[in-house]
Amino acid sequence: xxxxxxxxxxLIQCRTEKTPFVSGKDMSFVPSIDDxxxxxxxxxINDFGKMQELKKINTDQVIDAKDRxxxxxxxxxxxxxVFAGDRSKEFIDRIKGLSYEEIAARGGGILNSxxxxxxxxxxxxxxxxxMRINSVIRQGTGAIEIKSGYGLxxxxxxxxxxxxxQIKDSSxxxxxxxxxxxxxxxxxxxxxxxxxxxxxLNKMLPAFKKENLIDFIDVFCExxxxxxxxxxxxxxxxxxxxxxxxIHVNQFNVLGGIKIAVENNALSVDHLEVLQDDDIxxxxxxxxxxxxxxxxxxxLGIDYAPARKLIDAGLPLAxxxxxxxxxxxxxxxxxxxxxxxxxxxxxxxxxxNAATINGAxxxxxxxxxxxxxxxxxxxLIITNKINSIDEVPYNFGGNQIHKVILEGEIIS
Length: 412
Ligand code: NIG
Ligand code: FE
Description:
binds N-(iminomethyl)-L-glutamic acid, binds fe (iii) ion, TIM Barrel, eight-stranded parallel sheet, alpha/beta, 16 strands, eight-stranded mixed sheet
Protein backbone atom coordinates (compact mmCIF):
# COMPACT_ATOMS: atom_id res chain seq x y z
CA UNK A 1 0.00 0.00 0.00
CA UNK A 2 1.25 3.48 -0.84
CA UNK A 3 -0.07 6.97 -0.32
CA UNK A 4 1.03 10.32 -1.72
CA UNK A 5 0.01 13.47 0.14
CA UNK A 6 0.60 16.41 -2.20
CA UNK A 7 0.32 20.21 -2.17
CA UNK A 8 0.87 20.32 1.62
CA UNK A 9 0.87 23.97 2.72
CA UNK A 10 3.41 23.17 5.47
CA LEU A 11 4.98 19.82 6.36
CA ILE A 12 5.87 20.18 10.01
CA GLN A 13 8.60 18.56 12.14
CA CYS A 14 10.73 17.24 9.24
CA ARG A 15 14.04 15.89 10.47
CA THR A 16 16.65 14.36 8.20
CA GLU A 17 19.33 14.08 10.86
CA LYS A 18 18.86 11.61 13.69
CA THR A 19 17.43 13.70 16.54
CA PRO A 20 16.36 11.71 19.62
CA PHE A 21 14.98 14.81 21.40
CA VAL A 22 15.35 18.59 21.46
CA SER A 23 16.31 20.70 24.48
CA GLY A 24 16.34 24.28 25.68
CA LYS A 25 16.51 26.92 22.93
CA ASP A 26 16.30 24.25 20.22
CA MET A 27 12.76 23.58 21.36
CA SER A 28 11.64 26.91 19.91
CA PHE A 29 12.30 25.69 16.37
CA VAL A 30 10.26 23.13 14.44
CA PRO A 31 11.82 22.39 11.04
CA SER A 32 9.24 22.44 8.26
CA ILE A 33 8.87 22.55 4.48
CA ASP A 34 6.42 24.83 2.66
CA ASP A 35 4.52 23.52 -0.37
CA UNK A 36 5.57 19.94 0.24
CA UNK A 37 4.76 16.33 -0.57
CA UNK A 38 4.97 13.23 1.61
CA UNK A 39 5.11 9.69 0.25
CA UNK A 40 4.17 6.74 2.43
CA UNK A 41 4.90 3.13 1.57
CA UNK A 42 4.06 -0.01 3.55
CA UNK A 43 3.05 2.05 6.56
CA UNK A 44 6.30 4.01 6.72
CA ILE A 45 7.48 7.43 5.61
CA ASN A 46 9.32 6.74 2.38
CA ASP A 47 10.10 10.20 1.03
CA PHE A 48 9.23 13.88 1.44
CA GLY A 49 10.31 17.24 0.08
CA LYS A 50 9.30 20.30 -1.92
CA MET A 51 6.46 19.86 -4.43
CA GLN A 52 8.69 21.13 -7.23
CA GLU A 53 11.09 18.25 -6.52
CA LEU A 54 8.38 15.59 -6.70
CA LYS A 55 9.23 13.07 -9.40
CA LYS A 56 6.68 10.85 -11.10
CA ILE A 57 5.62 8.31 -8.53
CA ASN A 58 3.49 5.16 -8.67
CA THR A 59 1.00 5.30 -5.84
CA ASP A 60 -2.20 3.54 -4.78
CA GLN A 61 -3.76 6.61 -3.20
CA VAL A 62 -3.42 10.38 -3.41
CA ILE A 63 -4.56 13.06 -0.96
CA ASP A 64 -4.53 16.68 -2.08
CA ALA A 65 -3.67 18.65 1.09
CA LYS A 66 -4.02 22.12 -0.45
CA ASP A 67 -4.22 24.76 2.34
CA ARG A 68 -3.64 22.06 4.98
CA UNK A 69 -0.66 21.26 7.15
CA UNK A 70 0.72 17.81 7.99
CA UNK A 71 2.39 16.85 11.26
CA UNK A 72 3.50 13.68 13.01
CA UNK A 73 0.78 12.33 15.34
CA UNK A 74 0.83 13.37 18.99
CA UNK A 75 2.98 11.19 21.28
CA UNK A 76 1.30 10.90 24.69
CA UNK A 77 3.98 9.53 27.01
CA UNK A 78 2.01 9.38 30.29
CA UNK A 79 -1.49 7.92 30.59
CA UNK A 80 -3.63 5.67 32.76
CA UNK A 81 -6.17 5.18 29.96
CA VAL A 82 -7.08 1.64 31.09
CA PHE A 83 -9.51 2.11 33.99
CA ALA A 84 -13.00 1.05 35.00
CA GLY A 85 -15.98 3.36 35.46
CA ASP A 86 -15.48 6.99 36.43
CA ARG A 87 -14.97 9.25 39.45
CA SER A 88 -17.32 12.07 38.51
CA LYS A 89 -18.75 12.06 42.04
CA GLU A 90 -15.31 12.98 43.41
CA PHE A 91 -15.14 15.75 40.82
CA ILE A 92 -18.28 17.30 42.32
CA ASP A 93 -16.89 16.78 45.85
CA ARG A 94 -13.84 18.77 44.81
CA ILE A 95 -15.99 21.54 43.34
CA LYS A 96 -17.74 21.70 46.70
CA GLY A 97 -14.41 22.22 48.44
CA LEU A 98 -12.70 18.91 49.22
CA SER A 99 -9.12 18.52 48.02
CA TYR A 100 -7.74 15.60 45.99
CA GLU A 101 -5.76 14.54 49.07
CA GLU A 102 -8.82 14.74 51.37
CA ILE A 103 -10.86 12.60 48.97
CA ALA A 104 -8.06 10.01 48.85
CA ALA A 105 -7.84 9.98 52.67
CA ARG A 106 -11.56 9.07 52.81
CA GLY A 107 -10.95 5.98 50.66
CA GLY A 108 -11.73 7.71 47.37
CA GLY A 109 -9.08 8.36 44.73
CA ILE A 110 -6.89 5.56 43.44
CA LEU A 111 -8.39 3.01 45.88
CA ASN A 112 -11.86 3.82 44.56
CA SER A 113 -10.71 3.14 40.99
CA UNK A 114 -9.00 -0.06 42.18
CA UNK A 115 -12.25 -1.33 43.70
CA UNK A 116 -14.12 -0.60 40.47
CA UNK A 117 -11.46 -2.32 38.37
CA UNK A 118 -11.26 -5.38 40.60
CA UNK A 119 -15.02 -5.87 40.05
CA UNK A 120 -14.84 -5.47 36.27
CA UNK A 121 -14.23 -8.39 33.91
CA UNK A 122 -11.24 -8.33 31.60
CA UNK A 123 -13.54 -8.15 28.60
CA UNK A 124 -15.50 -5.20 29.95
CA UNK A 125 -12.28 -3.41 30.95
CA UNK A 126 -10.96 -3.88 27.42
CA UNK A 127 -14.17 -2.56 25.87
CA UNK A 128 -14.28 0.50 28.11
CA UNK A 129 -10.60 1.24 27.43
CA UNK A 130 -10.86 0.63 23.69
CA MET A 131 -13.57 3.32 23.45
CA ARG A 132 -11.15 5.81 25.01
CA ILE A 133 -8.33 4.63 22.74
CA ASN A 134 -10.52 5.20 19.68
CA SER A 135 -11.43 8.65 20.93
CA VAL A 136 -7.79 9.74 21.44
CA ILE A 137 -6.88 8.37 18.01
CA ARG A 138 -9.54 10.63 16.48
CA GLN A 139 -7.92 13.49 18.41
CA GLY A 140 -4.56 12.85 16.78
CA THR A 141 -2.68 10.62 19.21
CA GLY A 142 -0.55 8.07 17.37
CA ALA A 143 1.65 6.76 20.20
CA ILE A 144 0.74 6.24 23.81
CA GLU A 145 2.18 4.97 27.07
CA ILE A 146 -0.31 3.18 29.34
CA LYS A 147 0.22 2.42 33.02
CA SER A 148 -1.21 -0.28 35.24
CA GLY A 149 -1.78 0.72 38.88
CA TYR A 150 -5.53 0.40 39.44
CA GLY A 151 -5.25 -3.33 40.16
CA LEU A 152 -3.16 -3.31 43.34
CA UNK A 153 -3.35 -7.10 43.63
CA UNK A 154 -1.59 -9.79 41.63
CA UNK A 155 -4.72 -10.81 39.72
CA UNK A 156 -5.96 -7.31 38.98
CA UNK A 157 -2.58 -5.85 37.99
CA UNK A 158 -2.22 -8.85 35.66
CA UNK A 159 -5.69 -8.16 34.24
CA UNK A 160 -4.74 -4.52 33.54
CA UNK A 161 -1.43 -5.42 31.90
CA UNK A 162 -3.15 -8.05 29.77
CA UNK A 163 -5.68 -5.46 28.61
CA UNK A 164 -2.80 -3.09 27.75
CA UNK A 165 -1.21 -5.93 25.76
CA GLN A 166 -4.51 -6.54 23.95
CA ILE A 167 -4.63 -2.85 23.00
CA LYS A 168 -1.01 -3.03 21.87
CA ASP A 169 -1.72 -6.04 19.67
CA SER A 170 -4.96 -4.75 18.18
CA SER A 171 -4.22 -1.08 17.60
CA UNK A 172 -2.39 0.73 14.84
CA UNK A 173 -1.10 3.13 17.47
CA UNK A 174 2.31 2.56 19.04
CA UNK A 175 1.75 1.43 22.64
CA UNK A 176 4.17 1.12 25.57
CA UNK A 177 3.23 -0.57 28.82
CA UNK A 178 4.29 0.60 32.28
CA UNK A 179 3.92 -1.45 35.47
CA UNK A 180 2.70 0.86 38.26
CA UNK A 181 2.00 -1.69 40.99
CA UNK A 182 3.32 0.92 43.44
CA UNK A 183 0.52 3.41 42.79
CA UNK A 184 -1.13 3.19 46.25
CA UNK A 185 -1.14 0.81 49.21
CA UNK A 186 -4.20 -1.45 49.15
CA UNK A 187 -6.18 -1.40 52.43
CA UNK A 188 -5.03 -4.92 53.41
CA UNK A 189 -1.44 -3.64 53.52
CA UNK A 190 -2.07 -0.41 55.44
CA UNK A 191 -0.17 -1.75 58.44
CA UNK A 192 2.39 -3.65 56.38
CA UNK A 193 3.61 -1.30 53.68
CA UNK A 194 6.91 -3.12 53.16
CA UNK A 195 4.89 -6.28 52.63
CA UNK A 196 3.14 -4.65 49.68
CA UNK A 197 6.43 -3.50 48.10
CA UNK A 198 7.69 -7.08 48.60
CA UNK A 199 4.62 -8.38 46.75
CA UNK A 200 5.16 -5.90 43.90
CA LEU A 201 8.85 -6.73 43.55
CA ASN A 202 9.06 -10.42 44.40
CA LYS A 203 5.83 -11.72 42.91
CA MET A 204 4.32 -9.34 40.41
CA LEU A 205 7.41 -7.94 38.66
CA PRO A 206 9.08 -11.28 37.78
CA ALA A 207 5.80 -12.90 36.69
CA PHE A 208 4.66 -9.98 34.53
CA LYS A 209 8.09 -9.53 33.01
CA LYS A 210 8.16 -13.21 32.10
CA GLU A 211 4.86 -12.76 30.26
CA ASN A 212 6.41 -9.84 28.37
CA LEU A 213 3.88 -7.39 29.75
CA ILE A 214 6.24 -4.64 30.96
CA ASP A 215 8.24 -2.00 29.08
CA PHE A 216 8.77 0.41 32.00
CA ILE A 217 8.27 0.55 35.76
CA ASP A 218 6.72 3.46 37.69
CA VAL A 219 6.19 4.50 41.33
CA PHE A 220 3.95 7.20 42.82
CA CYS A 221 6.59 8.85 45.02
CA GLU A 222 4.49 11.05 47.30
CA UNK A 223 3.51 11.62 50.93
CA UNK A 224 1.01 8.94 51.93
CA UNK A 225 2.04 6.81 48.95
CA UNK A 226 5.58 5.55 48.33
CA UNK A 227 8.67 7.04 49.97
CA UNK A 228 11.90 7.94 48.17
CA UNK A 229 13.43 4.82 49.77
CA UNK A 230 10.65 2.61 48.35
CA UNK A 231 11.10 4.38 45.02
CA UNK A 232 14.83 3.68 44.94
CA UNK A 233 14.26 0.03 45.81
CA UNK A 234 11.69 -0.35 43.04
CA UNK A 235 13.74 1.44 40.37
CA UNK A 236 16.82 -0.67 41.22
CA UNK A 237 14.87 -3.91 41.11
CA UNK A 238 13.47 -2.90 37.70
CA UNK A 239 17.00 -2.36 36.41
CA UNK A 240 17.88 -5.94 37.35
CA UNK A 241 15.31 -6.96 34.71
CA UNK A 242 16.59 -4.35 32.26
CA UNK A 243 13.50 -2.24 32.78
CA UNK A 244 13.96 1.54 32.99
CA UNK A 245 11.70 3.67 35.11
CA UNK A 246 9.31 6.55 34.58
CA ILE A 247 8.47 8.06 37.97
CA HIS A 248 5.55 10.10 39.37
CA VAL A 249 7.34 12.74 41.50
CA ASN A 250 6.86 16.19 43.01
CA GLN A 251 3.10 16.40 42.40
CA PHE A 252 2.23 17.72 45.87
CA ASN A 253 5.45 17.54 47.92
CA VAL A 254 9.20 17.73 47.43
CA LEU A 255 10.57 14.50 48.89
CA GLY A 256 13.83 14.04 46.98
CA GLY A 257 12.48 11.60 44.41
CA ILE A 258 14.00 13.44 41.46
CA LYS A 259 17.55 12.90 42.71
CA ILE A 260 16.91 9.21 43.16
CA ALA A 261 15.31 8.86 39.75
CA VAL A 262 18.10 10.73 37.96
CA GLU A 263 20.86 8.85 39.82
CA ASN A 264 19.25 5.58 38.79
CA ASN A 265 18.96 6.50 35.12
CA ALA A 266 15.17 6.88 35.00
CA LEU A 267 13.90 7.57 31.51
CA SER A 268 11.53 10.26 32.77
CA VAL A 269 10.29 12.10 35.85
CA ASP A 270 6.68 13.15 35.54
CA HIS A 271 4.38 15.78 37.16
CA LEU A 272 6.87 18.25 38.80
CA GLU A 273 4.18 20.69 39.93
CA VAL A 274 6.28 21.50 42.98
CA LEU A 275 9.90 21.89 42.01
CA GLN A 276 12.96 23.42 43.64
CA ASP A 277 15.88 25.04 41.85
CA ASP A 278 18.10 22.22 43.12
CA ASP A 279 15.92 19.73 41.28
CA ILE A 280 16.51 21.63 38.05
CA UNK A 281 20.27 21.47 38.69
CA UNK A 282 20.06 17.73 39.26
CA UNK A 283 18.05 17.27 36.05
CA UNK A 284 20.59 19.33 34.10
CA UNK A 285 23.36 16.93 35.07
CA UNK A 286 21.45 13.74 34.28
CA UNK A 287 19.84 12.09 31.30
CA UNK A 288 16.27 11.87 32.59
CA UNK A 289 13.64 13.81 30.64
CA UNK A 290 11.10 15.90 32.59
CA UNK A 291 7.47 15.33 31.59
CA UNK A 292 4.79 17.82 32.66
CA UNK A 293 1.04 17.31 32.68
CA UNK A 294 -0.78 20.63 32.19
CA UNK A 295 -4.33 19.23 32.14
CA UNK A 296 -3.82 17.56 35.53
CA UNK A 297 -3.10 21.01 37.01
CA UNK A 298 -6.05 22.43 35.10
CA UNK A 299 -8.45 19.80 36.40
CA LEU A 300 -7.23 19.69 40.02
CA GLY A 301 -6.66 23.44 40.24
CA ILE A 302 -3.10 22.92 41.49
CA ASP A 303 0.05 24.77 40.43
CA TYR A 304 1.36 24.24 36.93
CA ALA A 305 4.84 22.72 36.68
CA PRO A 306 7.42 25.43 35.91
CA ALA A 307 7.89 24.29 32.32
CA ARG A 308 9.33 27.62 31.22
CA LYS A 309 12.09 27.36 33.86
CA LEU A 310 12.96 23.83 32.73
CA ILE A 311 13.29 24.83 29.07
CA ASP A 312 15.16 28.03 29.95
CA ALA A 313 17.62 25.90 31.95
CA GLY A 314 18.44 24.12 28.69
CA LEU A 315 16.50 20.95 29.44
CA PRO A 316 14.34 18.89 27.09
CA LEU A 317 10.65 18.76 28.02
CA ALA A 318 7.74 16.50 27.08
CA UNK A 319 4.05 17.18 27.72
CA UNK A 320 1.47 14.44 28.20
CA UNK A 321 -2.22 14.06 29.05
CA UNK A 322 -2.03 11.90 32.22
CA UNK A 323 -5.46 10.58 31.06
CA UNK A 324 -6.90 9.01 34.25
CA UNK A 325 -10.23 8.99 36.10
CA UNK A 326 -9.09 11.13 39.05
CA UNK A 327 -6.80 13.97 38.06
CA UNK A 328 -7.15 14.28 34.28
CA UNK A 329 -10.16 12.53 32.74
CA UNK A 330 -9.26 13.56 29.20
CA UNK A 331 -6.70 12.37 26.69
CA UNK A 332 -7.11 15.29 24.34
CA UNK A 333 -3.54 16.21 23.41
CA UNK A 334 -4.79 19.26 21.49
CA UNK A 335 -6.02 20.66 24.79
CA UNK A 336 -2.77 19.61 26.51
CA UNK A 337 -0.83 21.63 23.91
CA UNK A 338 -3.16 24.58 24.24
CA UNK A 339 -2.92 24.53 28.05
CA UNK A 340 0.88 24.28 27.89
CA UNK A 341 0.85 27.47 25.82
CA UNK A 342 -1.68 29.50 27.80
CA UNK A 343 -0.75 28.39 31.32
CA UNK A 344 2.91 27.38 31.07
CA UNK A 345 3.82 30.02 28.49
CA UNK A 346 5.28 27.66 25.93
CA UNK A 347 5.33 28.84 22.34
CA UNK A 348 3.49 26.78 19.73
CA UNK A 349 6.81 25.38 18.51
CA UNK A 350 7.93 24.39 22.02
CA UNK A 351 4.60 22.71 22.68
CA UNK A 352 4.70 20.81 19.38
CA ASN A 353 8.24 19.58 20.07
CA ALA A 354 7.15 18.58 23.59
CA ALA A 355 4.15 16.65 22.23
CA THR A 356 5.89 14.92 19.31
CA ILE A 357 9.63 14.26 19.22
CA ASN A 358 10.19 14.64 22.98
CA GLY A 359 7.04 12.68 23.82
CA ALA A 360 8.33 9.84 21.65
CA UNK A 361 11.67 9.94 23.49
CA UNK A 362 9.96 9.89 26.89
CA UNK A 363 8.53 6.45 26.04
CA UNK A 364 11.47 4.99 24.14
CA UNK A 365 9.85 5.41 20.72
CA UNK A 366 12.21 8.01 19.25
CA UNK A 367 13.31 5.67 16.45
CA UNK A 368 9.75 4.98 15.37
CA UNK A 369 7.59 8.09 15.70
CA UNK A 370 7.63 11.77 16.68
CA UNK A 371 8.95 13.36 13.49
CA UNK A 372 8.63 13.30 9.72
CA UNK A 373 11.75 11.25 9.02
CA UNK A 374 12.51 8.53 6.51
CA UNK A 375 11.53 5.04 7.71
CA UNK A 376 9.56 6.26 10.72
CA UNK A 377 6.01 4.92 11.02
CA UNK A 378 3.51 7.00 9.05
CA UNK A 379 1.33 8.15 11.96
CA LEU A 380 0.20 11.57 10.83
CA ILE A 381 -2.24 14.43 11.31
CA ILE A 382 -3.66 16.39 8.37
CA THR A 383 -5.02 19.68 9.67
CA ASN A 384 -8.05 21.70 8.70
CA LYS A 385 -7.42 24.57 6.30
CA ILE A 386 -5.46 26.91 8.56
CA ASN A 387 -3.33 30.00 8.01
CA SER A 388 -0.83 29.43 10.80
CA ILE A 389 0.23 26.53 13.01
CA ASP A 390 -0.56 28.84 15.95
CA GLU A 391 -4.22 28.04 15.26
CA VAL A 392 -3.61 24.61 16.86
CA PRO A 393 -3.16 25.85 20.48
CA TYR A 394 -5.35 28.91 19.81
CA ASN A 395 -8.40 26.73 19.10
CA PHE A 396 -8.64 25.48 22.70
CA GLY A 397 -11.25 22.87 23.53
CA GLY A 398 -11.58 21.82 19.90
CA ASN A 399 -9.03 20.65 17.42
CA GLN A 400 -7.77 21.49 13.95
CA ILE A 401 -7.68 17.90 12.74
CA HIS A 402 -9.08 17.03 9.32
CA LYS A 403 -7.76 13.48 8.95
CA VAL A 404 -5.73 11.07 11.01
CA ILE A 405 -3.41 8.51 9.43
CA LEU A 406 -1.99 5.51 11.28
CA GLU A 407 0.57 3.22 9.66
CA GLY A 408 -0.20 4.92 6.37
CA GLU A 409 -3.93 4.16 6.60
CA ILE A 410 -6.61 6.83 6.79
CA ILE A 411 -8.65 6.35 9.97
CA SER A 412 -12.28 7.25 9.44
O1 NIG B 1 -0.83 10.88 37.61
N1 NIG B 1 -0.65 10.92 40.86
C1 NIG B 1 -0.88 9.74 40.75
N2 NIG B 1 -1.54 9.12 39.76
C2 NIG B 1 -2.44 9.74 38.84
C3 NIG B 1 -3.78 10.00 39.41
C4 NIG B 1 -4.42 8.79 39.87
C5 NIG B 1 -5.84 8.93 40.23
O2 NIG B 1 -6.27 9.92 40.87
O3 NIG B 1 -6.56 8.00 39.89
C6 NIG B 1 -1.83 11.01 38.30
O4 NIG B 1 -2.31 12.13 38.51
FE1 FE C 1 -0.11 9.83 36.20
